Amino acid sequence: MIDLLRLPGITPMDLRDDGKILVIQAEAQEPQVPNCPTCGTALFRHGKRVHVFADTPLEMRPVRIEITRQRFRCGTCGKIVTLELPFLDDKRRATRRLVDSVRERCLSKTFHSLSEDTGLAVNTIKNIAQDLISDMDREVRFETPSIMGIDELNLAGGMRCIITNLATMSVFDMLAERTQAVLKPFFEAMSDREKVEWVCTDMWRPFKRSFAPYLPNAKLVIDKFHVVRMASDALESERKKYQKDLDKDARLQIKKSVRWLTLKRTSSLTPEEAVALAIVKKSVPDLGVAHDLKESFYEIYDQDTRADAMLAFKDWEKSIPAKMPMFKSLAKTVHNHYEDIFAYWDAPTRITNAYTEGANGITKVANRTGRGYSYEVIRAKVLYHKLAREIGSVRRLIIQEDPSPSAGSGFLMAKWLPSGLLSTSETIQVTEYGPYLSTLVAAAEAGEFT
Ligand SMILES: [Zn+2]
User: How far is the CA of 24 from the centre of ligand 1 (A)?
Assistant: First the structure.
């Protein structure tokens, strides 16, 4: 029989077709009789045993190897020794190469399809994936962002926390929960903490308390879109007030047409829409006022300088009529977070979490993720996505003159040698910023996370 297996130390003897599975019977090659690992005396042969191990598929079918191995017994201490085979996995009844190939695929294929391909139980695949994830968590380090976004995200049955690099548009990390108990140790353990200059989050107060003690150079800026969204919410509550007295059909009609007409920025309305909006505003004056308040609140962010923005806010606040408490409470919220909201104009660039592929992108990824996965697996699928990581990295070619050890100072010697005689060493230095968001979105759209 030809050596189908090409595994050192065993010889295949027979092949049996067991329906769905191919079974290969193999004999371990006769070893030199070892000494007892406990007491050192020579061992005696002590019968043979057959053990079954899963191996990589052949002909697209799962493979089992039945290996007959010699056992040895120590005449002095009674210890029984089975010959070790280096190609077997330490933890599972499988070859190392099978475990490796499962590790290679388990973050891009479903556990069920891998279980079908290999004949391993779904739970075994899950365990292999879990080992891989712990290894990755230990080994993979992404560059600490100088501009960091912190956001929450509904994923795998809970509100999770996602940390992004807003300068490179990549994911830096994901945390199971957005609580101080999770955030504080995360920031405390983060390397290069002094590199973080800006943190962009929503108005959730505990965020600041979670990172402020650990990021000595970080300044908080409250995400613009979380701020302006409150003006849209205030407008919505005015619209609902007005349609409360209408019958169901009219309410539905209003919801369909007036809602988006008023929520849209005036600047992006078509001429027809602008006419329609003008009619709505004329026939429901209160809604018209609320709409103007929403628009002028958004315009605060159109200001070029912090001073102009603060002035625009002051004027806006004065224009709120007493009968619109939602806008009053929006003004109060702005006062409560005043410094962190107006820090937007202090940053060297306009920092926001809602960059095209950012908050939206990661939501798209979350929405397209299979329900069968645990949060830990989804996190690993996103964070350790191979292509997205590669695109989120920067490679630099480092050429170093090789200092000759006999010459003492390599640098001095190099000066006196013709350049052709210099030996150089080239290394590629890879800086990883984390998986690139656009690549993740494309992968999610291609069904990689389902
Ligand atoms: Zn012994």
Answer: 33
